[in-house]
Amino acid sequence: MPYVNIKVTDEGVSAEQKRQLIAGTTELLVKVLNKNPSTTFVLIEEVNTDNWGIGYQSVTELRQADS
């Protein structure tokens, strides 16, 4: 029973993109590991950019510096 947790920043990932991530991840586990898709779980978590850090800064700060 595979469980895959995908974390992305909350910057406009559409419902269709999420659907594709779930389907594609499930298909990869079916093809590579011969897993049953009905017992394969994919969780997508959207994380606020204030709560995602790279180095010493949040992604929010990094995005503002790039602007």
UniProtKB/TrEMBL annotation:
Highest taxon listed in the record's lineage: Bacteria
Domain 4-oxalocrotonate tautomerase-like: residue ranges: 2-60
E.C. code: 5.3.2.-
Keyword Iron-sulfur: no
Keyword Transferase among record annotations: no
Transmembrane residue ranges: none
Cited InterPro entries: 4-OT (IPR018191), 4-OT-like_dom (IPR004370), Tautomerase/MIF_sf (IPR014347)
UniProt keyword list: Isomerase
Pfam families per record: Tautomerase
The family this protein is said to belong to: Belongs to the 4-oxalocrotonate tautomerase family.
PANTHER family per UniProt: 2-HYDROXYMUCONATE TAUTOMERASE, TAUTOMERASE-RELATED
Name of this chain's protein: Tautomerase
Species of origin: Bowmanella denitrificans
